[in-house]
Amino acid sequence: xxxxxxxxxxxxxxxxxxxxxxxxxxxxxxxxxxxxxxxxxxxxxxxxxxxxxxxxxxxxxxxxxxxxxxxxxxxxxxxxxxxxxxxxxxxxxxxxxxxxxxxxxxxxxxxxxxxxxxxxxxxxxxxxxxxxxxxxxxxxxxxxxxxxxxxxxxxxxxxxxxxxxxxxxxxxxxxxxxxxx
Length: 181
Hints:
mainly alpha
């Protein structure tokens, strides 16, 4: 049986199984892996501009882990683990030029987000203030990158910002619990 012949429901179970296996040992890592996989594998099936959860995951990595571990996770989770699972189980939803590993400018922006967030967390900002700063930096960097490589997108940053701010507003206590604060 080819992978493409496996029903989507079974592929979803296989894709999200690592989250369940990691959850008892590191709930934050399991949650972040889940939301990134959900974004990159499930939401990616639908053309919804700006619905991205990777920023939230990298934001939470920076708040819980040391700088080096947070940077490593910000590269490995969306750039390697998610890419490989997506390439193996969700090929029909890949772009024609998409490779098994997708490391690029987006990962550099994630590293910048982690670094800035990790630095700013030492100044006692609240979750909401930190998220607003991080979103502003991330979308400014993405705008600069897109200015050189294509046309800048206006809709995606607005949707992304509203979604991530909404999540921090309504699930902030859950995120603080995951971080261990």
